# Entry
Amino acid sequence: MGRRAPIRLTRRGRVVLFCFLLALAGGAVALISAPGQAADPPGPAPTVIVQPGDTLWRIATEHKGSRGRDATVEDIRRLNHLDGYSVDAGQRLVLPRTR
# Structure
């Protein structure tokens, strides 16, 4: 078998390939980026100061909006970078925006 010559691209071919890769990277970034951030209303996120005896479940029940309590608990944990489910009196918690 004969040896094949390497593929050579013309200038136009390189431009088309570059544009294709650029569009592919842009599509990947659009898919990976956090959805829903643009839909959030402007202004500071709602917060609450934890009172003695408060639990995440009680706070979530009061502020759950259209979502269920358990989903709101998980949103509060995610927004405040909480590892567990306990909160301390005086702690400020960022709440999810209700819809």
